Amino acid sequence: MESHNSSWGTSPAADSPTTAHSSRVARTHPQIKIEPNCLVFPPPHFGRCVQNAISLYNVSKKPCVFKMRSQNPERYVAKPHVAVVAPESAARIFVTLRDMNTLGTKNLPEDTHDRFRISIKLYDPSSVDASLSAKELWNVLQERGARVDHEQDLVSFFTKRDTPVGGLVTFFPPTYIPVTPSQHQKGDAAVAGVASGAPTPPSAGGNAVNGGDAATAKKNASPPSSATGAAARAAAAAGSKKTPVGAASGKGEGRGGGTSGEVGKTKQGGGANKMPALWVGIAVAAMVVVALAVVVGVTLRGRGRGGGSNGRDAAARSRKTDAALSHEAQARLQEEAEEAIRVHAAQEAARLRVQQEEAAAAEQARAWQQEQEKAAEAARAQREQQEAEVRAREAAEAEQARLQQEELAQAQEQQRRREAEEARLAQEAAEEAERVRVAQEAAAEEAARTQQQQQQQDAAQAQQQAEVGEAADMHYEQAQQEEHVSVETQREPAEA
Predict the structure, then answer these.
(1) Which residue intervals make up region (Disordered) (predicted)?
(2) Stretch 248-274: mean pLDDT, rounded?
């Protein structure tokens, strides 16, 4: 990541995770998902750039803004490192490892582990200004004290290992990312520029134009001489040689990011538009040379007129001097014109070379863009397939739930009917039992009544029999008494 990305601290060892933990989730949200859970940068780490793609899925109903930070931002370029993700959509973050040659090293040690932290905040779109950029939106939410809804750490590995699930590893040439010169390289370049007498501007157009302006300034400041012409040619040659380097830098910026590339093109265009200034300087230098020659000739002629015969000799010498100066001026002008033509040809060749490099870079950028579009299309197709699978699974689950509910309703209805039938049967049994009880009670009452009647009849019969018995007994007793009386009656006469 670039310099605008903040790092966590100056001590990488303090925050370095162990190799057993590829990611650490500090705070999670059920509707936010980040894939993969780690980054892989297989060697070699020099002579090429290694890029990892991170997919961020927001399936919630609210938009979110994310910010990515790196433990070692000088090694990486992340685009975008701050962005907004719409509701129910996804975004991709491309983390590219620079060519380690630009940082003065080769392969990174296998036990090196850099950590990346992705912080995500959900927000209400009606509470913020829609014209805010992602960075401004993050700062506004930060000022409001909005909490981080999802935070996840990704650890990078620098060994040969399989690409993690959901990851995408791509390789690019080293010119894919612009070279960031170190401080000592900048100092060496400045010293070299001072020693050669040529300026060291930062852009391609500035190099060529400033070189020509330096040569023109030297010609205007002092009379022309072979040393001055050589200095001008050296400055112009230095400017023409620096042009491809600056152009390549602008081209690299164009590949690394759109804004830097446009700046490089603008600077180059400015150098091309200032080409007439070089010819104007050459013409001014030629006029200065001619004027000096005329002044010298007039001075010598004036001295010749004041000296008589010596004046004639002086006039002859003056004419010879004028002729020599005129011949020297013409030769110098011819040399300057040839040098200007050579410089113009070199600059034109450099411009054509820069155009070719820019065309190649644009073609490479288009190819990369097509690859990214293909990857995005593949990711979109995969996401649509996953969504279709999720919808199909949800539909199947809903159908299964509906069937289960229907089965449950049927079971409940059957249970209710069975309970109702059992209640009806129980009620009928109770009623039957009641009827039986009533019948039994009636039968018992009837039996009791019959028994009572029988008892009454038996009692009546017994009483009647008793009465009959008593009557019989009384009759018998009477008969006995009568018989006894009769016997007594009969005995008395006999005794008498």
Answers:
(1) 1-27, 182-272, 301-326, 364-496
(2) 39
